[in-house]
Each structure stands twice: as C-alpha cells, then as structure tokens.
Specification:
Largest sheet: 6 strands, antiparallel, barrel
CATH architecture: Beta Barrel
CATH topology: Thrombin, subunit H
Radius of gyration: 13 Å
CATH superfamily: predicted glycosyltransferase like domains
Strand content: over 45%
Shape: globular
Distance between the termini: 32 Å
Strand order of the largest sheet: 1-2-3-6-5-4
Order of helices and strands: HEEEEEEH
C-alpha cells in the first residue's frame, strides 16, 4: 500500500512557514511541510526519534485572521533525510488535540488557500 493510500485525510501545505516547537523544551524542531486533521509532515534540522511521542506547539490563523497557538500530542511515524543537506522529513500522526484547537485546525484546513 502506498503512503498516499494510507492517509485518511487530505493534506494542505502552508503558504507561509509555520514553525513547530517542542512544548516541553521550547526548542524549535522544524516547520510544517503539510498538515491534515490526522497529522503533519515536519521539515526538521535533525532526525526525530523513531516511534517517539512529542508534545508540539504551532500557530495557525483562525477565521478572523488572529494567530492561535495550538498544542498537539504527536507520534513519529517515519523519518528520512530530505533532498537538502542538513534537513530531515518526518511524518507525525496527531494523537491528542483539544476540541478548541481541533476547531481552529479544521477551519484552517477548510479555509481558502493562504488562510
């Protein structure tokens, strides 16, 4: 089964960089390559630990254009070196998200390009 067939939700790439930080340490761990209701592809400066759980934070605009801080529990599914030296790709499955943050994420995903 190919990766695209395993996905449960379509993914949306951001038009502007969305930085992701580790909620426990505050460390910037990368930026979002694409995002869905179920997960994200992270572009990172380092390999993430295989099969690890992370608590991450990132900002998304809501319907009114205000930036909202979302916090999610994620589970690393895969990691590999990117085509650019010093960068890595990681697939993260969202396993925990508050109802309020889930609403902001759904609005961003369903909103117009550039939202």
């Amino acid at each position: 089964m190919s990766t695209s067939e395993q996905r449960r939700a379509s993914r949306k790439p951001p038009l502007a960089p969305i930085e992701v930080s580790d909620a426990l340490t505050g460390e910037n761990i990368g930026r979002i390559g694409n995002l869905s209701r179920n997960g994200m592809m992270l572009i990172s400066r380092r390999m993430l630990n295989a099969d690890a759980l992370y608590q991450v934070r990132f900002h998304l605009p809501d319907r009114e254009g205000r930036m909202r801080l979302l916090e999610a529990g994620v589970h690393e599914q895969w990691s590999e070196p990117a085509a650019v030296p010093g960068q890595h790709w990681a697939g993260l499955r969202i396993i925990a998200l508050s109802d309020a943050d889930e609403t902001v994420l759904a609005e961003w995903l369903d909103g117009p390009e550039g939202m």
